[in-house]
Each structure stands twice: as structure tokens, then as C-alpha cells.
Q: What sequence folds into this?
């Protein structure tokens, strides 16, 4: 599965050229024309990395970065700044704001691709290195999920409190939802579906968005009560 990149720039020519170059390099690229639109796209696609211009109308790159860093989903999301302002003080401001790399315009597209690949490679290595560490908060959520399942499936029947509804899940989202309801950890789901923990986290976040829930416990309760998955009887 190709990494999902978000490119935010108000210059149509540059935006289209960079998008084409990155796509030729094997990435899936989504675009936005300013920070406000970029924020909306980021919430929808949950990108693996953001490339953003700094100087843009309405909401600039610094404001976009601030929004991203204030959201738990994006606190570790890599962000690369592109800007015509290449002074040392500007670069320091960018790094202080939390960006991972700073590339002054004009730039060599091969250099941008190399930076993107390097950042994503280091992030994957870091995730792999911590993959065996179990988060106690996640373990607690799993226990809550199992308790809810037991409550809602007492005597082998699901006590629904709402009419069944239909939500347009992708096949992979549906698979992740069913495994979450089964009480599996993200790492276990990743192994079952032969994907990365990062991708599982993205799918779970999309499930939260589509169902209007904020936690795995709420998601499980919502899915069972609205018939989004078939409960497993005793």
C-alpha cells in the first residue's frame, strides 16, 4: 500500500508539478490549496506525511502545523515545510514550530523525494523497534471492549437499542471493525490483515470519524447496537 502524502500549496503550477513527481515516485498524493483545506483533507485521509508551503492565504503553514500538533492523531505526523523564505531565522522558526524538514524554494524535486523517503523510513524503523511494547492504556481499552461484548451478547443474543443502519465502510474498514469488536489489539489486527500498525491506527481513526465515536469502547457499543457487525453468540 503506497504511503499517503498531503501536499498543501496555493501555487497551482508548483502544486501540480510536485504532485506529479511524487506520484511518479510511487506515493499517493492528495492536495489542498491552503491550511484550512489541508486540515480538512488531513482529517479525512489521515496522511503518512504532510508537505506544506508556509506563506498561504487564510490559514498558513504554521497555523496548519499548530492544528496538527494539537490533535493526538497527528502529534507524530511528519511535516515538511516548503517556502521561498530561506533565511536562517525562518528555518529556526519552522523547526521550533515542530516541522521535520525545511526545504527552500526553488528546490530539486529529487531532494524532496529523498527527504520524504528518509523521514518515512526512519519512522517505520522507530515503530518497528517499539512494536513489542504493549501500551497499558490499549490493554485497558481491550478489557473494556470485552466487557461490553459480554454485556451485549448475554445468553447469546444481542440486546440492540437502536435500529440497524448502513454506513459506507470500505472492505478493509469493515474487516478492522470486526476485529476491533473481537477485542484484538492494533498489533494483532495488523498481523491478521498483513499490514502495519500505522495503517490499522488510520483505519480505526476513520471508523471513529464515520461512526461519530471517540474511543474503541464507544465504537464497539455503536457497532453492536446498530447492527454493523454480527455478534458472536455463545
A:
Amino acid at each position: 500500500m503506497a504511503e499517503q502524502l498531503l501536499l498543501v500549496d496555493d501555487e497551482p503550477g508548483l502544486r501540480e508539478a510536485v504532485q506529479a513527481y511524487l506520484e511518479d515516485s510511487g506515493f499517493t498524493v492528495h492536495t489542498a490549496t491552503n491550511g484550512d483545506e489541508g486540515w480538512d483533507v488531513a482529517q479525512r485521509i489521515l496522511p503518512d506525511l504532510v508537505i506544506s508551503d508556509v506563506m498561504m492565504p487564510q490559514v498558513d503553514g504554521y497555523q496548519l502545523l499548530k492544528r496538527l500538533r494539537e490533535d493526538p492523531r497527528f502529534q507524530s505526523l511528519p511535516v515538511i515545510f516548503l517556502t521561498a523564505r530561506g533565511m536562517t531565522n525562518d528555518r529556526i522558526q519552522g523547526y521550533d514550530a515542530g516541522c521535520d524538514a525545511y526545504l527552500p524554494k526553488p528546490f530539486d524535486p529529487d531532494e524532496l523525494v529523498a527527504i520524504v523517503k528518509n523521514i518515512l523510513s526512519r519512522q517505520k524503523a522507530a515503530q518497528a523497534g517499539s512494536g513489542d511494547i504493549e501500551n497499558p492504556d490499549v490493554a485497558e481499552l481491550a478489557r473494556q471492549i470485552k466487557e461490553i461484548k459480554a454485556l451485549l451478547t448475554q445468553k447469546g443474543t444481542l440486546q440492540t437499542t437502536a435500529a440497524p443502519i448502513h454506513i459506507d465502510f470500505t472492505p478493509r474498514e469493515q474487516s478492522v471493525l470486526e476485529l476491533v469488536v473481537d477485542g484484538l489489539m492494533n498489533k494483532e489486527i495488523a498481523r491478521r490483515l498483513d499490514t502495519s500498525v500505522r495503517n490499522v491506527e488510520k483505519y480505526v481513526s476513520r471508523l471513529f470519524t464515520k461512526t461519530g465515536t471517540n474511543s474503541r469502547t464507544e465504537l464497539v457499543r455503536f457497532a453492536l447496537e446498530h447492527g454493523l457487525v454480527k455478534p458472536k453468540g455463545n
Summary: The chain has two domains: 4-129, 136-225. Residues 154-159 have pLDDT under 50 and may be disordered. Residues 109-129 form the longest helix (21 residues).
